[in-house]
Queue: 2 jobs
Job 1
Amino acid sequence: MRGKFLKEFSIKKDKLVTLDIAAVGDYVEFKLSNDGTGLITNILPRQNKISRKAPRLKGASIRGERLEQIIATNVDNLIIVSSWLNPKFNNRLIDRMIVVAESSNVSPIIIINKIDLDSLNERATWSNLYKKIGYKVFETSVVNNHGIDDLREELKNKTNLFWGHSGVGKSSLLNLLYPGLNLKVGDISDYTLKGKHTTVTVLMKKVAENTFVIDTPGIREIEPYGIKKEDLCHYFKDFLDFIYNCKFNTCTHHHEPGCAVVEAVHQGKIDYERYKSYLNMLETIEEDLFFE
Ligand SMILES: Nc1nc2c(ncn2[C@@H]2O[C@H](COP(=O)(O)OP(=O)(O)OP(=O)(O)O)[C@@H](O)[C@H]2O)c(=O)[nH]1
Ligand SMILES: [Mg+2]
Ligand SMILES: [Zn+2]
């Protein structure tokens, strides 16, 4: 990569702007040199991209410093990987990843891994919650192969991006799904330690004709990039039947009177946990950081 593809941002008229840089999944034009190396000259238009706000830089506080971090482009499925335990199941993070998928035109598929650590089948409540909304949920275990064949079938003929907390088992699942990948997997004694990141780069692999998988480093948090407060509710599929019935068409479904979303929560038509995720995200959207 050279020139504009190397620079992540530049300052123009006091504004910080992001420039396109090549990401995993991109189709590019390139020139081959005599010495066998190549140079990317153009990034072709993307069908979609999965991104988030880049994590805050330590000590940084200036306006606009939260750049877009593109994880990968041109994907079909966002495989949202969670684990029942170690690390503990976290529905807030799942809901954030769903918002990223929905706003990027990518299909979210939810995995609850490590179900060997859920002997009482407590995860069923969560599986059912997401299935009721209309999402596909796979309960898996790398220890006893539970759910692996069904999942492999689902990934066929698609480009699948695996995303989730560090230690949930993304690389372990991929190794089991496609023997021969030999991805590095975290030490059993380490995975409860905070900040342990075994996978360190985004890696795409072709695992069958027309089937691709992308392994990614674990993330600690997700703040979706470029989502405005008034648009957030559109990415909560279970809210869509209600958002047009609010008294005010500018309703943020937070405090406004006559809110049909709040009413639906009271009536049990929208799960309270999903509504809490919505409020949690609404609060953390910093709209003024975006430039049109
Ligand atoms: N009990 C149990 N342990 C699992 C399961 N899947 C993975 N593990 C363990 O969880 C730990 C972390 O697995 P990884 O595959 O490295 O997790 P990862 O999501 O790729 O982590 P990062 O690369 O850091 O993002 C390893 O010690 C695995 O052996 C499972 O289904 N059950
Ligand atoms: Mg990994
Ligand atoms: Zn409302």
Note: Residues 217 and 268 are 37 Å apart (CA to CA).
Job 2
Amino acid sequence: MSSYKNILSLKLQWVLGVLCIFLSAVSYSATITNARVWPAPDHTRLVLEVSAGVEHKLFTLNNPSRIVVDLSNAKSLTDLSDLSLKGSPIKRIRTAVRNNKDLRIVLDISRSVTPKSFTLKPNQQYGNRLVLDLHEKKTTSNKPKVVKSVDQQKKRDIVVVIDAGHGGEDPGALGPGRVREKTVVLAIAKELQKLVNNKPGFKAKMTRNGDYYIGLRQRTKLARKYNADLFISIHADAFHKPQANGASVYALSKRGSTSEAARWLAKKENSADLIGGIISLDDKDDVLASVLLDLSMTGSLKASLGVGSHVLQSMGRMARLHKKGVEQAGFVVLKSPDIPSILVETGFISNPSEAKRLKTRKYQKQMANAIFKGVYKHFTATPPQGTLLAYQQYNRALSSPKKYKIQRGDTLSGIAKNHQVTLSQLRRENRLQTDIVKIGQVLRIPAS
Ligand SMILES: [Zn+2]
């Protein structure tokens, strides 16, 4: 009996021992394999590459300001204190082991931020990630608004908001030789920014200036904040077949715009927003609101297709086109109801020869140039009200000579008198050798 007990206890010990070995082998269920910091103007993103299913807790401590992330059953295989923190509110990152198995990460913070954490699923470049966003606290300025004179208002700039796709943790499409869409499109966007800013009467605003990610809705919000006359999102395509090639331009699809109108109304997200800066939907009933929104979206869509075809034509002179016409799809960034918006696919980064070209500064400049030519052509044809371009065209129309067709009984002096110009002005403008005019002859009337 006792020997049996001994055997049993021996067995139990053995089982416990194996269990212990097993437990210690899996004791770190989560590991941090890599980490990155992406400082952006309004937030800083700390990304920890972790194994799947990591549990974490986030809290803040004051005096001094710290943000603490506790990971249960975790250890870091990378030295977090080595990360470059330049441009971020993080002064220092420290780690410590707690309860022999948990990992505590402490961020020493230099200014007040609001932390938020979430996990990201694997993408083509990275695995599972735990993301910590530190949002800068908004400072509400009480600066009085500058009231512009009527003359200044008349001559406002055309605002082009340039949106370089992807960024930060989202590399976009990857091409041969590790060409990344996010890098190529930012370079093209910056070239385009220069061209726009160099043109009198135009002003460029960027949704992102560096390598960080901005949400899609945030990009359209920025367009509204900057009072965009045009929103251009810049991308590079990828396809599983390397043969696919060519640039293309997209506008929002009709279905995308219709469902967007429904979404806006349903969510009343627009309660604080102005549609087109004029129509507030707050004080209108829903039917009227939907009609107004529909009109606004139809107008924007028409303008988007117009500017899109100018850009496509212009790109067709320097690059191969994927499709002959402007395509339409339900891209989220194109869904501003009141801002003409296009998305330019500058080429297929998955195509080896296009990827090679897209990488070069020369081609990036050419591409930006082609896009701007199309944009400029569109706006000279239809300058938005109140802009310098509209003002200049109005003045040009005023100063350009009117035309007059000679009727029966007209005399040169009579025509001069009727148009409040002198006879000699009329002679000079039309290079007349004689004062005899013929019926049907067309005279240019100089501006008086
Ligand atoms: Zn893209």
Note: The pocket of zinc ion is lined by residues 165-166, 172-173, 181, 235 (CB under 6 Å).
